[in-house]
Amino acid sequence: MTDAFQETIDDTPRRLLRATLGKNSGDPKLDGTPSTVYVAPADNASALARVADPAQVQVFDPATESAQFLRHDAPHGLLYLPYPYLVPGGRFNEMYGWDTAFPVFAWADDLPQMMREQVDNQLYQIRMYGKVLNANRTYYLSRSQPPLIAAMVLRVFKAAQNRDWKEFDPDGVFDSAGAWLAAAYADLTAYHTYWTSGDRLADGGPLSRYWDEGDGAAAEVMLGEPGHYDHAIEHFRMRLSQDGADEAEIALFYNSRAEKLNPLYFRADRAMRASGLDPTGHWGYGGLQCLFHAPVCLNALLYQMEKDMTEIAGLLGRADEAPAWKDKAAKRRAFMKEHLLDRETGIFHDYNFRTKKLNTEPFATFFHALWAGLYEGEATLAAKAAQAVLEKLEAPYGLLTSNHISGSQWDAPYGWPPLQYFAFEGLNRAGLQAAGKRIADKFLKLAQTVFSDNNALFEKYNMQYGNAEVSVVNGYSINVSEKGTFLWTAAVLKLAQGMK
Asked: Can you tell me whether residue 295 is helix, strand or coil?
């Protein structure tokens, strides 16, 4: 392993930390110029202290004024966070929900204060905005992302059992790790409610689905990727010209007389973006059928969250609350086994509640089920299912997202660092250590080989051909890197290095 490769991994948090608000407020997805920093009244003084130009700060009430930012023509800007935050890099110059989980998993021991502050930035979002945001831009106020915050909290808390709490909290915001955990518990409880209520319930419940509270075109797409919607119109036109076209299905999303996309199209497009898998052909063209699925990934993460909350309640001595969380987890597992499990193959699949069918196309999010322990006590079934999925998705250089070439970036031939993590860590947790180590080693070797050619880590990789070349027709057609690195890639590589 080259020194430069290792140095890049280890140095990534420093390279991608945004310590000031005003200087780093520009949005490369738009025109990149410094933008307004929006802040709640209670934090106005703190925001002003972190910008050079006070005129850049604007006070707003998240409870009453968030809806205005759901229009693409609104004056968009950066949302205040209380601590310096990590960004993925490149065009992603803001703090993202699930992206930041992997650095916390990787560096909670090595960078205790920085990683505790990443968690506290997300807990702040729950209190202020009602959820962990997709990212801290105003146009993301309408949705969250895959929920990993409870696991992040536990990772920091357990790291703090071996260190002085002052290393995590030198300013003394909390008296102890226990006091910090108790404060986090209330926020986590609220966030669990967010995912298990309202329109986020799949077909009314009890399982959950991805959802976005906004209507109409997603602002970041209209402003940064307008061709995405032009492609959709052309796609539906072409479909209608073909023999045997399902006109009723197409009419859900496209008005052929007016030659424009229907409101349901935008609702579905937004839900797909909440999943983080944007876009993928796994849920049909453009991932639009995501709206009608109870997905393995989301419900496995919520199952893990409910187990984590059981543990946290126990750590806090809340004996009256721990059983309720344990019961929630048990019920979710039972419902997932009832609706998402293919009993013949033993594989958990996304469930389309509109068609009442499993989506049996192989997809890498299957490994979330292993990671969350859904096969606990069923080692033989776990091994059978994992082997079947690996036979379809394991490629020469790592794990494919799917085995379907759709023209979308979350499909073959591409593989994504977070999905490599859920695969190798999930396999390891399920007792399939050899397979987990194989996936981890493949990803490490691929990333190092690409680094030797490009002196950079990238957002995603071509697992079939062993490079970082990207060619998509649905989504942004670049492979992001900043200062030679990308946040979740470096973090997952760090985690892969820890595989035994």
From this structure: coil
